[in-house]
Amino acid sequence: MTASQSFTHEVELREETVVKRYRSWDRQEPRCEWAALKLLAEHAPGLAPAPVTADLDGAPPTVVMSRLPGVPVRGLDAGPEVVAAMAAALTRLHRRVPVGGGLAEAAWNPASALAHVRAWAGKRPDLGDDPDVRRAFTEGTSWLARQTLDRLRAHAAPPVLGLADGNLANYLWDSAAARVRLVDWEDSGRADRAFELAEVSEHISHIDGRLDRDLLLRHLELGPDEAARVREFRRLLALGWLLVLGPGGPASSRNPPGALAWQAERVLALL
Predict the structure, then answer these.
(1) How many other β-carbons are positioned within 10 Å of the β-carbon of residue 98?
(2) Would you say 193 and 225 are in contact if contact means Cβ atoms under 8 Å apart?
(3) How far is residue 114's CA from residue 143's CA, in Å, rounded to a whole number?
(4) Is residue 161 located within the same domain as residue 179?
(5) Which of 7, 64, 208, 230 could in theory staple to 52 by disulfide, Cβ–Cβ 3.0 to 4.6 A?
(6) pLDDT per position as a tens digit, 35-72
(7) Using CA atoms, how far apart are residues 245 and 178, in angstroms rounded to an integer?
(8) Is 139 found in the same domain as 208?
(9) Residue 160 φ/ψ, nearest 5 degrees
(10) pTM above threshold 0.90
(11) Are residues 189 and 137 in the same domain?
């Protein structure tokens, strides 16, 4: 038996199961995870851990799920086989799992992201003296001021079940089965597919390892309108990470070396 910890929960790895004990649950994280796992077990078995038992009203709340094989995609030099498997997993998730009105909207969504990034930009955070970083901020905030961005919050397409967290550590690559499975559903909910794809494309976890994001999106065969929405959401999220990573940002103390310069290049490339 081994254990690992994160900011929001403690994970105990057993031989066949995983026990997740939540350190915070003000956003109903245990209930979100349990609801998602049950939905996935019914409509896309094998794509995520199978639900075993839950004590949602415990102190702390606990969810027990099956243990999946594989290693996190985060940190891998992910070749085309891994990218194709990620695309297959996302396609199965978005096409096979129905989302009814009873499922709560994911807290991290187009409206909240746009509001957060605009709020961060409005504080004009300290981004240091790197001219490329300053240029990325200037061009990014100019783009962010466009009123047309508010239209992104309205989306006519049916919602999907989304992880609402693009961290590549949530994607497990099983080389023996040539499959990718998804874990950590505590922030999940009803989601906008274009936003979800942008989130996994632009999460800062890409700084560890290598994964061809554009190839991933090509595998997903987006239509013109959805591709345009994904592109705008990618710009929004990349700019948000730039603001978070700056010397005055909440993630600055955990930045890998060169993270801010790397993210500035990313913002400028997307713009």
Answers:
(1) 13
(2) no
(3) 12
(4) yes
(5) 64
(6) 999 999 999 999 999 999 999 999 899 999 999 999 99
(7) 34
(8) yes
(9) -125, 165
(10) yes
(11) yes
Burial (Cβ within 10 Å: 0-12, 13-18, ≥19) of residue 230: buried
**CATH number (domain holding residue 61):** 3.30.200.20
Contact predicate 89/47, CB 8 Å: yes
Name the residue with tokens 């009814």: 100
Among left, alpha and beta (phi > 0; psi -120 to 50; other), residue 70 is: left
Q: Say how far apart CA 250 and CA 234 lie, in whole Å.
A: 20
Q: What residue type is 188 in one-letter code? A: S
Nearest to 186 by CA among 21, 13, 57: 21
The residue written with tokens 């102190």 in the block is 59
Same domain as 192, residue 117: yes
pLDDT by residue (tens digit) across 109-126?
999 999 999 999 998 888
Give me the number of domains the chain comprises. 2
* Residue 48 main-chain phi, psi, to 5 deg: -145, 170
Q: Are residues 19 and 73 in the same domain?
A: no
Specify the residue for token string 């038992």. 53
Residue 156: phi, psi to the nearest 5? -85, -20
- Show the domain range for 142: 69-99+107-111+113-270
Angle between helices 110-122 and 224-245 (to 10 degrees): 40
